[in-house]
Amino acid sequence: MKEENKLYLDKNYVDWISELSKRYRVAQIKASVAVNTEMLKFYWELGKDIVNRQSENKYGSGFFERLSRDLKEAIPEAKGFSVKNLYYIRKFYLMYSDIFPQLGGNFPQVMGNSNNSNLPQVMGNLKSDADLITNVPWGHHRMLIDKFFENTEPVIFYLNEIVSNGWSQVVLDHQISMGLHQRKGRALSNYKTTLPDVTSDLVQQLTKDPYIFDFTNLVEPFKERELKDELLRNITSFLLELGEGFAFVGKEYRLKVGETEQYIDLLFYHLKIRAYFVLEVKVTAFEPGYVSQLGTYVTAVNHLLKTEQDNPTIGLLICKTKDNVLAQYALEGYNLPIGVSEFQLEKFLPENFRSALPSIEEIEARLSNIDVKEGGEA
User: Fold this and answer.
1) Which of 66, 91, 141, 218 has the most crowded CB, counting CB atoms within 10 A?
2) What angle do CA 248, 252, 253 make, to 5 degrees?
3) Under the phi-then-psi rule, with left for phi > 0, alpha for psi from -120 to 50, and beta for the rest, what region is 203?
4) CA-derived radius of gyration, the chain
5) Residues 281-314: pLDDT tens digits?
């Protein structure tokens, strides 16, 4: 047998090649993180210089145009010195030095364990909030500047989400537009009292209230079956709204319970929590009886599907509307982990934003005034 063929039949050799491939990919990831960190460090210092020099009022209104031209001439091989990007660099320094005043105007030092050899540790083992800056690409920072420079409160939330979930800019833009920071972890639940502390916090953060089903084509009135069909017809968007880690198991999942057959609306499995999620969707307002029905399904899954390797099954009820007090009372009577949320068919509008929108009456009044003026001019 040729030496070459012997190598391919040698399992140790094959495993070695596989290991080298993994090492190479990890090295690439570490290199990209290191390059990103050095670039952000340069931008931080440049932004700091711009702020300090501008404060001296020496350069006039054409400062950014001149700086852009001079930097391009001095460093012709470099990119990122357009006038627009220089404005972003200035805002980058201003925003994060304000969010992290403990930095004292200095760029955060990387504190994560860079010697770890797998992706989650490289990207996620952060020992301070300031480290989040270095683990997020520049394009994402620009988007956060666009969205939150005037109101920076949500920035840390989105930095954590980007690093934890590896979001692209497209996903980040979508989640911001859907107001994720005001919905995540907001479901009413009894998870705190029915699950271990660490698990209960993780499960609570998986929930949203409300859930946004704007990807459906439904117009009221519609039936429960129509909503479920639309959710599954748009399963990719539905899973994105549910969040990272959910895997779809089945719709109207059949379970033989005693002498009866029970059908679960939607059954999922969460890969990180390692637990089944039973989802019941109702197109009406919350009723206490819905909790009892969901509790039966949760118990059935624990008995018939759950293995020793799985954690306790989680229940989530999504209704059109809910009375929070009534829902909380209903949950307190159950020792099974259940949460209750609402759903909307349109994009989420924060309350402070809604209050700034004109009412229908105001819009009609303004249109009437326009009609009167146009009629008078004629």
Assistant:
1) 141
2) 65
3) alpha
4) 27
5) 999 999 999 999 999 999 999 999 999 999 999 9
